Amino acid sequence: MAKDKPTKLKARMPRGLADRxxxxxxxxxxxxxxxxxxxELYGFEALETPFIxxxxxxxxxxxxxxRPNEGVFSFQDDDEQWLSLRYDLTAPLAxxxxxxxxxxxxxxxxxxxxxxxxxxxxxxxxxxxxxQFDADTVGAPTVAADAEICMMAADxxxxxxxxxxxxxxxxxxxxxxxxxxxxIGLGGEENAGRRLTVLRAIDKFDKxxxxxxxxxxxxxxxxxxxxxxxxxxxxxxxxxxxxxxxLSLLDRQASYEKPAxxxxxxxxxxxxxxxxxxxxAGYEGRVKIDxxxxxxxxxxxxxxxxxxxxxxxxxxxxxxxxxxxxxGGGRYDGLVGRFRSEPxxxxxxxxxxxxxxxxxxxxxxxxxxxxxGPVVVVVMDRDQTAHYMGLVATLRSAGIRAxxxxxxxxxxxxxxxxxxxxxxxxxxxxxxxxxAAGQVQIKDLIEGAKAAAAITDNAEWRSxxxxxxxxxxxxxxxxxxxxxxxxxxxHGAALS
Length: 496
Hints:
By secondary structure, this protein is of the alpha+beta class. Helices cover 35% and strands 21% of the residues. It is built from 15 helices and 18 strands. It has helices at 22-41, 55-58, 90-99, 144-159, 174-183, 192-203, 205-217, 240-247, 262-280, 353-364, 385-397, 412-421, 432-437, 458-464, 476-487; strands at residues 45-46, 52-54, 74-76, 82-85, 108-117, 129-138, 167-173, 220-224, 229-234, 287-289, 303-314, 320-331, 346-352, 375-377, 402-404, 426-429, 439-444, 468-472. Strands 1-5-6-13-12-11-7-10 form an eight-stranded mixed sheet. Helix 1 packs across helix 4 (144-159). It holds the Pfam family HGTP_anticodon. One of its GO terms (molecular function) is histidine-tRNA ligase activity. Homodimer. It is found in: Cytoplasm.
């Protein structure tokens, strides 16, 4: 009787997650460093919080969820307390500030970069794990802190290579929105659900236009309105008069009687002050007041802002792509105060690193230099492995990325194929004759030498040697540096 073969595990990645290769990691690392420099220029300092928080520390402020155990990945500790993976970097900051309140200098200015996790249905551009880079000011009650955050967001995008005019920092105020909702009878806790539905409808203005928002404020909207097909989104159930007041926020041509309540007036005054501050600082046109901005999280209490890319590019199929929002934030004066007896004002901004990196890859793809791998020292004689390692160590000590081929050295052609796949700028070759003469051969892979992939043995290599030159071992570092500099391949300084 034949034995059943053991079942092999199927290699598969969970939905909503992604592996990242060296090129993406390198570009992300460079982008994070640029953002960090701008944030530090504004006086913000680094802070790191853990990936996991107590679920009750996140409270009800979860992404588009009404229950504290939804929208996040949660589990119970051995003491039966619920823990959750952080869904943003703001709630952990609020906990950190409250826990260390008396020893922190205030206003407390910090930046944080890291992974966040959303237990939501994944889809195109919607991941369960993604990276954010935040900057927050805690303990500053004036809107000057909000204006500064907006100016810093503009400077950050420009430092990353996005030209002035290809982005805009849009600013609104939740007090203006709340004042309008009060005016149409949606104030009070009992109307919290309908208020959220109205805000979500306004937030879709850029995607569905004024008529789409009108539908969402009323009975609802079909995914394909003309055919009344596709998914149906239930609306807020406003009557025509109520909807007209809300729509007038989005329609600059409409005229209506402004709400006569303190909430609306306070929000409008704050927007006027922000506009005056950014204009005085020279950011007019880069930072703009826009009544369509609605941030999704419930904890925003004042000014809210969104960084939007306005340029359009083509995808690999020639279709137009517009990235839209790549970051946002706002004032959240109640979040830290949940842990304390007094209110604590705070404002902050978050960059969606993955989304912004994708936009930058389109923007820079034409002029982007290729990412080169390390110099590869091939192995001609297996009994000389220690000597080859010495050559590698010499290159590394000079700050040059290098490695010795660690596969089966029997087939020289495979070693060259490996170097090609690693996108190596050159390989270092040394047989017994070169070693006896104290020399090496340096093969320039950038210049050509495409035929190297076909070389299969030492005899063929000796008769071919395309794009190749000799160097003494003593000059190895100098000659490799000359080659790298000639091709514009970056390399480091000597290790101390």
